[in-house]
Design brief:
This protein has 2 helices and 5 strands, in the order E-E-E-E-E-H-H. The chain is of the alpha+beta class.
């Protein structure tokens, strides 16, 4: 996982639009250095998420119950990331 900074045009990633100059985390395989600059690396925590192994319906129900906007996330990984990001922001 990389920490990237948006260069000249807004970048939409995981359902969120990031303005030029904004920094955010991006999966290594998604980095395109023509639109973002890598500014660091995120230490990877290999501890399994409490949400691993839950069904999509269970994840969506959890997000709805806790009023977490999952945007257009439709995969287990994407929804878990949205939930975990929302919990970190609390």
């Amino acid at each position: 996982m990389k920490i990237v900074k948006v260069l000249k045009v807004p970048v939409r990633y995981n359902g969120v639009t990031h303005a030029p100059g904004a920094s955010f985390e991006m999966e290594d395989e998604h980095v395109n250095e023509s639109i973002v600059e890598v500014t660091g690396e995120v230490a990877v925590d290999n501890t399994p998420s409490e949400f691993e192994g839950k069904t999509l319906d269970e994840l969506k129900a959890f997000a709805e119950e806790h009023k977490i906007d999952i945007g257009k996330a439709s995969t287990e990984e994407g929804i878990i990331k949205k939930i975990e990001d929302a919990q970190k922001a609390e």
